[in-house]
Amino acid sequence: MRWLVTGANGFVGRALVRRLLSQGLPGGRALTQLAVTDFALDDDVADPRLLRLPGDLTQSATWADAFAAPLDGLFHLASVPGGTAEAQPALARAVNLDATQALLDQCRAQVERGGVAPRLVFASTIAVYGAALPPEVNDHTPAAPHMVYGAHKLMAEIAVAHASRRGWLDGVSLRLPGVLVRPPAPTGQLSAFMSDFIRELAQGRSFECPTSPGATTWASSLPGVVDNLLHAAVVDAARLPPSRSLLLPTLRFSMAELAEAIARVCAVPAPARVRWSPDERIEALFGRFPPLRTDAAERAGFVSDGDGETLVRRSLALS
Ligand SMILES: NC(=O)c1ccc[n+]([C@@H]2O[C@H](COP(=O)([O-])OP(=O)(O)OC[C@H]3O[C@@H](n4cnc5c(N)ncnc54)[C@H](O)[C@@H]3O)[C@@H](O)[C@H]2O)c1
Predict the structure, then answer these.
(1) Are residues 134 and 258 both part of a single domain?
(2) Rounded to the nearest 10 degrees, what angle do helices 222-234 and 308-315 cross at?
């Protein structure tokens, strides 16, 4: 089995690569080679199966390197995040849309050379739903992105489904919620405050939160997201909807509830250490998430973190 991870040096990519090397794919499917690509790649993992292919995915040479030998599957994680995409839509298009299309073209060429249609796990986003969410989000909720990032991800999902129908690849698009806890670095992610909230409060420090305490949001822990990406690598296509897109099982909680869960897990007075300073834009983007139902993904075997305390523990790598 030869697999590729794009965006391998990113927040999710680094965790996914480590899990793939330590555990392989679910079901005991061993990897013979794991090709990884990003602008630059850390060399802190030594493994003979790892093939580092540093490069820019907007350049065809990077894709040619990645597909130099046939691929059984790919995780496509490389992306320009939401805040940067809004500020630099041309860059966002080049990476989030055009480079994804280049990837699909490579998969098609592999099939036309007589190779297998590779499994493609595409990291999409809940940003495809836009800002004006209905009272419940479920498998029938129409996507209506209102920002560049969500629009490009939705276009890419449609391209993945189309290419799957044509037999050029076997795609699964996962609509990820905010993933916790990111390391503290300026990343262009508008939702970064949620990671800061958990990290700072867990350390017993105070935190100025740009939402109200009642702001309700959706999120998953990094290990939980990696579990679901790995499941997507092996899930039977017959269990997927024709759109090939799934809203992942995801916890919904208020920021006040999150502070209480941190207090219980870390034995710190987290609720008392939050100063609530709602920013209308952040509250509108991340603080008004309604209840969600994820029947299709649950039927296909995807899972959430389960409860707030588990989310906090797993996000902080405490379990
Ligand atoms: N982290 C989240 O909360 C979240 C939420 C929803 C969806 N997602 C999606 O999950 C995926 C992974 O997220 P993440 O948090 O790890 O993102 P990240 O920004 O940490 O990592 C993305 C990686 O893509 C690389 N990249 C960007 N442009 C590139 C290019 N032209 N050529 C080569 N590499 C390039 C970056 O260098 C970076 O390392 C992304 O597709 C993101 O849209 C993430």
Answers:
(1) no
(2) 90
Atom 12 in ligand 1: which residue has the minimum CA distance? 77
Q: What is the pTM of this model?
A: 0.96
217 lines ligand 1 (CB under 6 A): no
How many C-beta neighbours within 10 Å does residue 46 have? 7
Q: What residue numbers bound the domain in which 281 lies?
A: 180-218+250-291+306-315
* Catalytic site includes residue 129: no
Looking at residue 192, what is its pLDDT? Answer: 85
Q: Are residues 145 and 272 in the same domain?
A: no
Overall average pLDDT of the 237-256 stretch: 97
Are 47 and 139 in a shared domain?
A: yes
| 201 and 240 co-located in one domain | no
**pLDDT for 132:** 86
Structure tokens at 16: 């996914």
pLDDT for res 29: 87
User: What is the widest separation between alpha-carbon atoms in the chain?
Assistant: 62
> What's 29's DSSP letter?
B
Instruction: Tell me the CATH number at 27.
Output: 3.40.50.720
Q: Tell me whether residue 161 is in a domain.
A: yes
In short, whether 38's Cβ falls inside 6 Å of ligand 1 is yes
Q: Is 30 contained in some domain?
A: yes
Residue 14 alpha carbon, nearest atom of ligand 1: 16
Phi-psi region of 111 (alpha: psi -120 to 50; beta: other; left: phi over 0): alpha
